[in-house]
Prior knowledge:
This protein is an alpha+beta fold.
Amino acid sequence: MNRSLLTCSLATAFAAVAALPITAATPSPDTCFGTNRGGEKTAQRQTVEKRKQDSATTRRSRSTKGFSWFSAKQGTTPNSRNSRSTTTYPIVSHFGNTTTVKVNGAQRPATIHHDVLSSGSASSSQVIIDLASQRGYLLMNGRVAIDTPVSTAAAGMVTPTGTYTITEKVRSGKMSTIYHCAMPNWMRLGGTSYGMHTGFLPGYPASHGCVRLPGYVAPYIFDHTRSGTRVAIRSTWSGNCEEF
């Protein structure tokens, strides 16, 4: 083969190769994030959203676990919108000389100041019932020793206002002759049929006229009063002990 013939053959071969179609390589969705369209792009977006959701779920899970642990120490469990509250009352906490007693979810907890309680005797005690705020106060020498929620007369019933003395005390065994229910820590108000006693506090006025006291608090008031202790029932109390 002479040189001219070889040159012609090579030129023909190069021309044939140049005539072949050129196909561009398509980037892989696994190696080129965000450059594809259609299904690959949607899949990538869903992956990102899934990671965000997983992260948020983890944060909520940690928060919920911490809340459950704290609530368990208080004797409660978190509430659910779709279920009834499983909170158990009373919830009692002690801080130094003070005890707090959460009676229900609606009223401010009771507070017992043990140092004030021990600073006087039953002869120096007084009781104030504030109907408007549904609170009761045991005072020792003019100082508040116990501040507690109470439940007084429901709508259509009456808890009479005025100043009374305790005329009868019965720790246990006292029964209502009208409603036939037990009334522990009974303290009669003057010559009336009304009194203070242990009872259920739903968070609002619900009694038939008596002053219901929380079960944890009532024994303290019973033990630190006597026959003759003055009890003032007021529509509202300003905090001034001179109102007696």
